[in-house]
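ok so for the tutorial part 2 we go from a plain amino acid sequence to predicted structure tokens. step 1 is just haveing the sequence, like this:
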Amino acid sequence: MSLLPYDDRDGVIWFDGEFVPWREAKLHVLSHGLHYASCVFEGERVYNGHTFKLTPHTERLHHSAKVLGFEIPYSVAEIDEACRGLIRENKLVDGYIRPVAWRGSEMMGVSAQQSKIHLAIASWEWPAYFSPEARMEGIRMKISPWRRPGPDTAPTDSKAAGLYMICTLSKHMAEAEGYNDALMFDYRGRIAEATGANIFFVRDGELHTPDPDCFLNGITRRTVMDLARKRGYVIHERAIMPDELPSFSEAFIVGTAVEVTPVREIDEHRFKAGEMTVNLLKDYDALVREAGAQSAAAE
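step 2 — the prediction. this is what the tokens look like for a chain of 299 residues:
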């Protein structure tokens, strides 16, 4: 399979306040963020040239940096405007935005309080996370041996790069066995989330989703819950145990990248994309497209 490397593309990247040619957006190999994971990021979707829920994403980026003990040297409004400018510069219509902030190379060691804080924002075309076939048929998931850490062992209330190491390990394991993604339990053995998305289940016409007390309460998760309430669906946010999986008829994951994607299989458990899953998938797709169209019309 031929890949287009992310370090060898046309376009520009916003880097510490300036638009620089894509191939020139580089950092030193001794950057603290690379060695010690003092790095936070966001993932944002662009629809019709406009980022869906841009400001909430930027606010979360600032919050994540604060949790990791550093301050991003650009305000929420400045970052929002940089994202808008980047979309214009790269002529992006439907795609993805990746802001990332990290400690630089001034200090090398566990303690690096005097290191400069850098911020970069990249954007690229990205129409779908899973293939259209996988999304419509429902993805296959395998339970991961890795668990989400407890809030007293990791900064779980942040979108920090280091927290995704076990997600990569989990997803690689699942893909090596022919699955699309992995389902992760939390440190107590409860169902938590997928490697980059929250999860919902349906039983007897009601929604069930894990309480996000040790992983991110995703922006897409909250959006989908709002859509579900508009339809009058009952939602239970609670601890969900693995032995409940056979009792659910539908399952789907939600996230900025995956949007709303049905799940048809978790190990030996089977699910169907029923009415509730399909309705929320369609509602979410309509919402993000409408938001993009409204933003374009307002310009």
